[in-house]
Amino acid sequence: MKGEKRFILHTKKLPEQFVRILKEAGTEVILIGETDRNRPLIEGVLQGLNIPVSFGYFSFRIPKDGKRPRLTATFPALMAMTGGEPLYLIDFDMPPEAGSLLNGAKGGRVIRY
Questions:
Q1: Rounded distance, CA 63 to CA 29, Å?
Q2: 66: helix, coil or strand?
Q3: Which residues have C-beta within 8 Å of that of residue 68, sequence separation ≥ 6?
Q4: Which residue from 27, 56, 98, 109 lies 20 to 30 Å from 87 (Cα-Cα)?
Q5: What is the DSSP string of 83-96?
């Protein structure tokens, strides 16, 4: 499996010798807190995967260009950059119509965790 990596999520620190053997076999260990849930868990996993992540309040304007948008949506989210457009990870249910509108607009995708 050249170029592929595997990851293990673990709540307790493993002996360095064991971690080294796993690393040599292409497996990375990501430490997460035993009590981590929701946002701290998602942030910890993404950081362990070396995916840039930040929390904030983000706004979408539809249409994005122009003087006056027809719709502006602002919500709290984790923003993860995985290459192209950002992923906005939210912890609440969004009405399906709003999700369709926002995911159809340029500027990233909105995903509930």
A1: 43
A2: coil
A3: none
A4: 27
A5: SSSEEEEESS---H
